[in-house]
Amino acid sequence: MKRARRGRGRRRGWLVWLGPLLGPATISLLGSLLFLSGLIITVRTVLFPILRAGAAWWHQMVGTLLMEDWIELSNHLLGGMIMIGGAYLMFAGVRSFIRRTLGILSPTPVQGVVDSFRRRRELLVGPKIVALGGGTGLSNILRGLKHYSSNITAIVCVSDDGGSSGRLVTELGMLPPGDIRNCLLALSDSEATMAEVFQHRFNATAGALSGHNLGNLFMVGMLNRCNGDVDEAIRKMGEVLNIRGRVLPATIEHVRLEAEMADGSTLVGETDIVKHPSAIKSLRLSPAHPAAHPEAVAAIQQADMIVIGPGSVYTSVLPNLLVPGLAEALRNADCPRVYVCNVMTQPGESDGFSAADHVAALTENAGEGLFDTVLVNTGLPAEGARERYAKSGQLLVAPDSDRIRSRGLRVVEGNMVSQDEEVRHETSAVAALLINRVKVR
User: Fold this and answer.
1) What beta strand segments (E) does 98-239 contain?
2) pTM of the model
3) Three-class SS of residue 125?
4) 353-358 long-range contacts, Cβ below 8 Å, gap at least 24?
């Protein structure tokens, strides 16, 4: 056993030595030449004698059964049958290999091998979509968009300071992982399976892990393995989840939200801002000018479409727009820029807001010119769901589209609300409307 290990170690040593000297392409070419040389020698010295002996036996057997004129035809027929049989075996082998490979790459493959390849090819050449936001709103939209393209870049706010994410920020000094985790799961090819694992939250019996989310802790481990490199940790986690696209933080700097409230008070931190009984008057970041993630800026510049929202207007959507580099890139972007307005109001953030009020909150805090189109829901959720939400202070956002148009913005209306117990955007309907904006550009 030890001798075998030493042998494998010596082989790896030769490869490590040859790699920098010759390069991978040269090594591959050299290996191919050696393989072909060995194959030619084997065929000439082993297979040819066997084939000649077999041909002589066949000729002798056929000669006893057929006339001389038919022998040549029988040879052609035999050769053709062998070729057809070999071609069939090759086709069956390749088809089996492809099916097994697809089964490994995708736990829930599309019907048929050809359909699966075609679908993956369509996604690879799909539009370049950038989506900005946070919370559950952004991840919900990503679930629909991933069926139209795998060229998706989700840009996520990093100002969360509550729950498991807030504890990890305080204890480890890392960026809040919660929204990043949600977006990674939303883009995953096997979302249903992985969500059950990664969204598990430890209960009170778990000691120090109590309240933590398993996906957040997985991110901690990946970050530790990548020596604190945030981008590499997110990329590795995306590989584990087999995502369609990528996820980037809006900035890699630690930022907090500061709000001026209607009662004149100033609050710091997302959790305290949302809990305060007074309405939010204005919002800013601390520090005020964090550096935008360079890859996020590049993605916006190269995008075929940019989606902003939906999500908590002040604590999920606006923080991205307050990053100066992202705001500048959005204003200069040469593609449709669509704000997806919320379906329901949110207590502590958008009490009594109409669709135009959502737009006003964004433009008054981050400035004009960040988007040119607003998606407004005109559908109604189930009556029972509306009544249940109303008891907690959440009302349907009024579609006052004329007020939005008066700002010089384009409005796209439609029934985009789900009919589930949880009132939210219907991902497939929103994705179809968004993709249509790219097609009519």
Assistant:
1) 129-133, 152-156
2) 0.75
3) coil
4) 353/313, 353/397, 354/397, 354/398, 354/399, 354/400, 354/403, 355/397, 355/398, 355/399, 355/400, 355/401, 355/403, 355/404, 356/400, 356/401, 356/403, 356/404, 356/407, 358/313, 358/397
pLDDT tens-digit map of 157-206: 999 988 888 889 888 999 999 999 999 999 998 767 777 788 888 888 88
Q: Is the pLDDT at 33 greater than 90, yes or no? A: no
CA dihedral of residues 394, 400, 404, 406 (deg, nearest 10): -150
Helix/strand/coil for 365: helix
- Nearest partner of 377 among 428, 346, 417, judged by Cα: 417
Q: Which residues pair with 67 in a beta bridge?
A: none
* Percent of the chain at pLDDT exceeding 90: 56
Contact 317, 132 (CB under 8 A): yes
Domains assigned to the chain: 1-56 (no CATH), 126-439 (3.40.50.10680)
Q: What is the pLDDT of residue 370?
A: 97
